[in-house]
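Fig. S4 source data, part A: sequence.
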Amino acid sequence: MSRMAPLDLADIKDPEIHELIVECEEFGVPDRLFVQIFARQPEQMKGMLRAMLVSHRDGSVDHKLKEIIRIQIARFAEDPYFANLRSKKAIAAGLTEAMIDAGCDDYEDSDLFAESEKVALRFAEQMFLDSSKVDKIFYDEMHKHFSDPEIMEIGAFIALFHGIHMVMRTFNARPLAAA
């Protein structure tokens, strides 16, 4: 069980939160447990959840790639909650566990990824493990594959989920399907 007990759905009175729970369950990331934990501070939770949904679901960067990045950094953070959730949109688009495992492990030598995807995965890895390696030379390489808005999209996505993974790890939460 999570170290931060989830609120009962009946105790969450804000109708907007219930709408967000439905949206999350349709998307698959996060599940309602995340909302039930964070709903203790409704306005902050709604803002954070809207940002998560927009950064993950929307934008011009391939959703499957963002899903692999999300899981990659969840595994780096040792966050069992987000490491075990899967976006229904990414799965419908063809994302497989083999792709996820390759993206979280030896993506540099994998034939499953284009060079642009490898650069994005390297960006996520370095942002988490050693951000000092993300220098001008690295950004020059990113610009060979991504526009400025796409680099900002990936960077904001990494930053948002990195922080969320770290706090969820402290809660020792598990996805509802895995509970």
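Fig. S4 source data, part B ends here. The CA atoms of residues 79 and 168 lie 6 Å apart.
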